[in-house]
């Protein structure tokens, strides 16, 4: 099973990578259609917080 920075992926981790890239570029809106995309965003945001960068996305918000 593939993983993206410790998070298991369902397939090729493209959703995780796309979500992380979107968050790093300033995106802050979670999607309702892709949990993998949202996980990638959360991973990127946690890394940015650890580096001391401010983000506007909420980590605890969950999509349906």
Strand content: 5-15%
Structural class given helices, strands, pairing?
A: mainly alpha
**What is the 3D form?**
globular
Task: Give me the side-by-side strand order of the main sheet.
Answer: 1-2
In total, how many domains does the architecture comprise?
1
Distance between the first and last residues' Cα: 24 Å
Tell me the number of strands. Answer: 2
Radius of gyration from the alpha-carbon trace, in angstroms: 11 Å
Secondary-structure element pattern, one letter each: EEHH
Which stretches are low in confidence, meaning pLDDT under 50 for 5 or more residues running? none
Q: What does the average pLDDT come to?
A: 85
Q: Biggest sheet, in brief?
A: 2 strands, antiparallel
As a percent range, the share of helical residues equals 40-55%
The DSSP helix count reads 2
Question: Would you write up a description of this structure?
Answer:
The chain is mainly alpha-helical. It has one domain (3-50). Helix content is 42%, strand content 6%. The chain has two helices and two strands; from the N terminus they run E-E-H-H. A two-stranded antiparallel ribbon has the order 1-2. Helix 1 packs across helix 2. It is globular, with a radius of gyration of 11 Å.
């Amino acid at each position: 099973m593939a993983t993206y920075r410790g998070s298991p992926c369902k397939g090729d981790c493209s959703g995780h990578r796309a979500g992380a890239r979107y968050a790093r570029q300033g995106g802050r809106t979670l999607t309702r259609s892709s949990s993998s995309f949202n996980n990638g965003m959360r991973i990127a945001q946690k890394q940015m917080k650890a580096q001391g960068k401010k983000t506007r996305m909420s980590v605890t918000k969950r999509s349906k």
